[in-house]
Design a protein that fits this description.
- The protein is an alpha/beta fold and 268 residues long.
- It has helices spanning 5-18, 29-42, 59-72, 87-91, 96-115, 133-140, 146-149, 154-163, 189-204, 228-233, 235-244; strands at residues 21-24, 47-53, 75-80, 118-120, 211-215, 218-222, 249-252.
- Helix 1 crosses helix 2 (29-42), helix 5 runs parallel beside helix 6 (133-140) and helix 9 (189-204) packs antiparallel against helix 11 (235-244).
Length: 268
């Protein structure tokens, strides 16, 4: 028995207690493992994966969700969300994620009602330690976090996914595109498109884990420290790719990739 086996068994127990679930499916390691486990535990008829589609979701991610669910035989559909219609979301203050998840629940709640199911999100134990107002919004609307209830950390999810042979086990975290925009800078379709285009172009150059942080006409690139040499070796192509996305200046963050690092501004 592996070290995470008891927790994964507990995850199965949590899912069986819910009986029918609608998984908010972003295609990341957490939601992928949750959807895969729910499908295996409950069966195709009682598990539905739903991907929220909006300007804050990169097109590459939507396509990967489509491919993953087809590979695993999971029922899947998309649901359009309209967080951009909310002035509070576009204002991009510290509660932006609350309004985003509220819009997500607006889209998922009717589907869950149709399915006679509970909405479940791929939140893990480690996520509880960061500023995540979206979790509050989802919980207030009746969503459950089975990975948390089973005591699974991010490392546990990756280990269990790897043991199960899921190709998502080492997939880099891919938060919504709005997370690249510093708090206080309005979220617009144009800004989201610039970020998406820049990151898409950089991935085409072979960079997997990365963030393009948006600061007006300046893009701040975050990649793992181990990739710094590769960025410098491909400097001309990197600069050209980011310029083509609409940025005038290109910088490399010497602290490297840090998930959720823009939240530090809320603690200053």
């Amino acid at each position: 028995m592996t070290a995470v086996a008891p927790a994964t068994e507990q995850l199965g127990a949590v899912l069986r207690s819910l009986d029918r679930v609608v998984v908010a499916f972003s295609g990341g390691a957490d939601s992928a493992f949750l959807a895969w486990t729910a499908h295996r535990t409950l069966g195709a008829d009682r598990c539905l994966a739903v991907t929220a589609v909006s300007p804050s979701l990169a097109g590459d991610e939507e396509q990967d969700c489509r491919v993953l669910t087809a590979e695993w035989g999971i029922r899947w559909e998309t649901a359009a969300t309209d967080e951009m219609a909310s002035a509070a979301y576009r204002r991009n203050d510290g509660d932006r994620c609350f309004h985003c998840k509220d819009a997500l629940m607006d889209a998922l709640a009717p589907i869950a009602e149709r399915e006679g199911a509970t909405v479940v999100l791929g939140v893990n134990v480690d996520d509880l330690g960061d500023h995540r107002p979206g979790q509050q919004a989802a919980a207030e609307r009746g969503a459950r976090f089975p990975l948390v209830e089973a005591g699974l950390t991010k490392a546990d999810v990756r280990a269990a996914s790897r043991a199960a042979g899921l190709r998502t086990w080492d997939k880099p975290a891919a938060a919504c595109l709005a997370s690249r925009i510093p708090y206080g800078t309005p979220v617009t379709i144009g800004v989201l498109k610039s970020v998406e285009d820049a990151e898409h172009a950089l991935r085409a150059l072979g960079f997997g884990a990365l963030r393009v942080r948006h600061y007006g006409d300046l893009a701040r690139l975050e990649v793992p420290v181990a990739d710094f040499d590769r960025v410098l070796e491909a400097r001309d192509d990197v600069v050209q790719a980011v310029h083509a996305a609409g940025y005038r200046y290109v910088t490399l963050d010497l602290e490297g990739l840090r998930s959720g690092n823009l939240n530090a501004a809320l603690r200053d």
